[in-house]
Design brief:
Radius of gyration: 17 Å
Helix content: 40-55%
Shape: globular
Strand content: 25-35%
Number of helices: 5
Order of helices and strands: HEEEHHEEHEEH
Number of strands: 7
Distance between the termini: 34 Å
């Protein structure tokens, strides 16, 4: 996986978390994974199709998700409240929106699908068919995981095709 594809997502999550948590987040761990992904809390998946294909999973420990929900609601929210999963999807929207803008500015064309909450079973299946980069962001309110499995598609394969010289 190319760093130029994943860097916009890392930078975007870092910026958005720092604003919502009112403290900077710290990248605590980076791992590559080829097996299914085991979610740690509330997870939302965003799919991409086009010149860039793949998926992003944003996974949040319950306390971190409640903090984001509190920020978005403007009032204290408990981890068990129904607004918390919606807040995870909204955070995914914000992060993906910032990253997609950067990728579009570089000329990539692709379709972004809306975030969808993942069950434990869906999460395990989501990671079985591709290699993923998983980053753990530590925040004062719990960890946030960014699981990225993306690759170049049509445009890059044409660039690698043999050219006739003559």
């Amino acid at each position: 996986m190319k760093m130029d594809l994943i860097q916009p997502f890392i930078g975007s999550l870092d910026t958005v978390l720092a604003e919502m948590m009112r403290e900077p987040a710290k990248i605590a761990d980076l791992a590559m994974e080829e097996d299914g992904y085991r979610k740690k809390g509330l997870a939302a998946e965003v799919m991409f199709k086009g010149q860039i294909e793949g998926r992003i999973v944003l996974d949040m420990e319950p306390q971190a998700a409640a903090k984001v929900a509190s920020y978005l609601a403007g009032a204290e929210v408990d981890p068990g409240e129904s607004i918390v999963p919606e807040a995870v999807c909204e955070l995914a929207n914000m992060v993906i929106g910032n990253a997609v803008t950067q990728l579009n500015d570089r000329g990539f064309q692709f379709k972004v699908y809306p975030p969808a909450l993942l069950t434990e079973e869906q999460c395990a299946k989501a990671g079985q068919d591709s290699e993923a980069t998983i980053l753990c962001f530590e925040t004062p309110h719990g960890n946030v995981y960014l699981n990225i499995a993306m690759h170049y598609h049509a445009r890059r394969s044409r660039e690698r095709a043999p050219m006739s010289v003559g």
